[in-house]
Amino acid sequence: MRYITAGESHGPQLTAVLEGVPAGLPLLKEHIDEELARRQKGYGRGRRMQIEKDEVKILSGVRHGKTIGSPITLVVENRDWKHWTNIMSIEPLETEEVKRKVTRPRPGHADLNGAIKYGHRDMRNVLERSSARETTARVAAGAVAKRILAELGIQVAGHVLEIGGVRAQSPAYESLEQLQSVTEQSPVRCFDEEAAVKMMEAIDQAKANGDSVGGIVEVIVEGVPAGVGSYVHYDRKLDAKIAAAMVSINAFKGVEIGIGFEAARLPGSAVHDEITWDREVGFRRRTNRAGGFEGGMTTGMPIVVRGVMKPIPTLYKPLESVDIETKEPFAASIERSDSCAVPAASVVAEAVVAWEIAAAIVDQFGQDRMDLIKANMEQMRRYAREF
């Protein structure tokens, strides 16, 4: 499976085209709208989330509530487009005044690098596409991937571990359903209620100071059998694909799997997971420090991935930059007003991780139909138990 997205932040719509989704997958508009709504929540979001109420239109690849094997086209309209029709016009403009030309690159954004790469003298051509608004389309694609995984008995949940230096306790949840239920009620998607209050205080303080804060999100996936992925080639290692997908999220600057960077500070005896076996479940690990991966393949243990999101770089106390036309210094302009987007980023992280796992499963079990993929997955699970 693969997908591409198209569209600009203030253009008429965002589009995702999904190829290779198996036929026979139950898929309804509300499955996707639910995930889009989750992305728009979160303490610290700005006015844009009050303007946009994202809903999907499924334009192809689904008939009578089920996928048919052809490419799926998903569209999310930008409701604020009516205020940008001239600025983002496809047709040439007769006057330059309405262009709102951008010649002042913002530190921490793609503005300057993108302008140099494509030769743009108006950096709106860059910022409109490099905006995190594009993650709307990725969440829509991830919602389809989640439907595939759900049909195969695989669960995905994301939550926030840290915001603005406030670190939550590792969640002592009984099930992923409980983890998701609790975090969905939290304004910052945090399982630790005491830490959540302090996180919101950190966001409020940053906003009062004209600043922003980042954080750490975690995604957990349960139910993936052992052996998904490959050790044979570097580009088929599933943990590598997931790591790349996480860092591809806007403002993400790091990723770790399992205990991650902590492994550098521990002896091998405190890092590697001992293997056990019993007649009921087959092979297991005593611990899950590897985060569900060994040798680029799943171990059958829960997949645990964390991503680091830097603070949003558009600040109300602007950083200094240089105008590309005049070469004069200036204080960077403001294009959005979120003081923290970490809770929303946890939903995006769920989406990209779900897609990579679903794509690996569809590829590995090599069928164009959900019923055959289900049968092959169950056979794989039996084989792993009896091995």
Description of the structure:
The protein has 387 residues and is an alpha+beta fold. It has a single domain (2-386), classed as Chorismate synthase, AroC fold. It is 32% helix and 20% strand. It contains ten helices and 17 strands. The chain has helices at residues 29-40, 48-51, 111-118, 124-130, 135-151, 176-184, 193-208, 238-247, 342-365, 370-386; strands spanning 2-6, 13-19, 56-60, 62-63, 66-67, 72-77, 155-163, 166-167, 215-222, 252-257, 275-278, 282-285, 293-294, 297-298, 303-309, 320-322, 329-331. It has a five-stranded antiparallel sheet. A four-stranded antiparallel sheet has the order 1-2-6-3, with helices on one face. It has a two-stranded antiparallel sheet with strand order 4-5. A hairpin with a 3-residue loop joins strand 11 and strand 12. Helix 1 (29-40) crosses helix 5 (135-151) and helix 8 runs antiparallel to helix 9 (342-365). The protein is globular, with a radius of gyration of 22 Å. The chain starts with a strand and ends with a helix.
Summary?
It is built from 10 helices and 17 strands.
| Radius of gyration, CA atoms, in whole angstroms | 22 Å
Helix content: 25-40%
Strands, total number: 17
* N-end to C-end Cα span: 29 Å
Task: Write down the overall geometry.
Answer: globular
Q: What is the name of the CATH topology?
A: Chorismate synthase, AroC fold
Instruction: Pick out the low-confidence regions.
Output: none
| Secondary-structure arrangement, i.e. CATH architecture | 4-Layer Sandwich
* Largest sheet report: 5 strands, antiparallel
Domain unit count: 1
Q: Return the average pLDDT rounded to an integer.
A: 93
Secondary-structure class: alpha+beta
How much beta, percentage-wise? 15-25%
Strand order of the largest sheet: 8-7-9-15-10
| CATH C-level class | Alpha Beta
Number of helices: 10
Give the SSE string. Answer: EEHHEEEEHHHEEHHEHEEEEEEEEHH
CATH-defined superfamily: Chorismate synthase AroC
